[in-house]
Amino acid sequence: MAYVTLLLARSDVTDLLDVDQLASRLRDGFRRDDEQRIAELRARTDLPGEGTATALLPGVLPGVPAYTVKVNAKFPSADPALRGVVCLHSLDDGALLAVLDSASLTAWRTGLAAAVATDMLAAPGAATVGIVGAGVQASVVLRGLGRLRPVSQVTVADLDPARGRRFAERHEPPGGPPVRIAGTARDVLAAAQIAVFATWSREPLASLADTRPGQHLTSLGTDEPGKRELAGDILGSATVVVDDLRLARSMGALSPPGQRPVKAATLGQVLRGEHPGRSSPDELTVYAPVGLPWQDLAIAWQVYQAARKRGRGVRVDLLA
User: Fold this and answer.
1) How far apart are CA 130 and CA 126, in angstroms?
2) Which helix (H) or strand (E) holds 132?
């Protein structure tokens, strides 16, 4: 008996995902994230040199007959900085249904989830967006956010000016205003109502004095111990929303040594109406996720189903 596994590369993931459907699935997943709680594991270890190895398992969602295990290598100076695989297994017998490129899958699931949260928490009518860290992750957030609300102006800053310019060229709207290039995170915050941080920083890039009433900040870089993008005075003054309280306090934005306790809500609580999220136009809001295994399953299952339907991917029998 042949046990067929689909190998799905970056181009397969990008071509086969349905952005609007995935955004809806992620929104529903956060709304229902307390229905099927099992012991999720997020393992991380330092490697010799600059790299880290991480694994997230298992990704499980109600109604999906499969689960995921993700294994990543993270090397900040590499291109891409994150590389690895997502293994999609059958819940019935553990059969390996597919192996998918992790870099593209992680960028899309994190970016679209962040776009959904950003749209929910940002002030109605906020249309100027700032980007700090001009990588793939920020690019996906910007694309997703543009499908959820009008974006009238984009300002970008990156430690590598050339990368910032390439980002600006890729996101230049036809017939629209050019993407502005800024020098620092402070410059970005001065120009934007919504700011997305997607960096490898281990020192705060912005403090409360850099913000303005009514702004929203999304911090995607605080997904491991020691990484920081926003100063403690921002977190202490803002309405803070995370994806998982336990992870945010053990390794995310709420974990730095010396950080004063921050009262935070989860995106699930906001979506279910258990927390108001933004409650006034002048409120400062922050979304600071870590990333959850079920998000990997949400996109992996969608891409796998589409690949089977369209005959995409390389079919192999690893047990042959």
Assistant:
1) 11
2) strand 128-132
C-alpha triplet 87, 248, 56: angle, nearest 5°: 10
The structure tokens listed for 54 are 């991480």
Residue 253 dihedral angles phi and psi, to the nearest 5°: -65, -25
Residues 6+ apart with CB under 8 A from 63: none
User: Structure pTM?
Assistant: 0.94
Burial of 104 (0-12, 13-18, 19+ CB in 10 A): buried
Quote the Cα angle for 258-223-6, to 5°.
165
Burial class of residue 256, CB neighbours in 10 A (0-12, 13-18, 19+): middle
Interacting residues of 309 by C-beta distance below 8 A, sequence separation 6+: none
The DSSP result for 191-215, as a single string, is H-SEEEE----EEEEE-GGG--TT-
In a structure prediction context, what are the per-residue pLDDT tens digits for the chain, which is 320 residues long? Answer: 568 999 999 999 999 999 999 999 999 999 988 776 688 888 999 999 889 999 999 999 999 999 999 999 999 888 888 999 999 999 999 999 999 999 999 999 999 999 999 999 999 999 999 999 999 999 999 999 999 999 999 999 999 999 999 999 999 887 778 899 999 999 999 999 999 999 999 999 999 999 999 999 999 999 888 899 999 999 999 999 999 999 999 999 998 777 778 899 999 999 999 999 999 999 999 999 999 999 999 999 999 999 999 999 999 999 88
Q: Which residues contact 114 (CB under 8 A, 6 or more apart)?
A: 141, 144, 196, 218, 220, 287, 289
In terms of C-beta density within 10 A (0-12 exposed, 13-18 middle, 19 or more buried), how is residue 179 classed? buried
DSSP string, 7-65: EE-HHHHHHH--HHHHHHHHHHHHHTTTSS----EEEEEE-SSS-EEEEEEEE--TT-S
CB count in 10 Å sphere of residue 263: 9
Rounded to whole angstroms, the Cα distance separating 134 from 178 reads 16
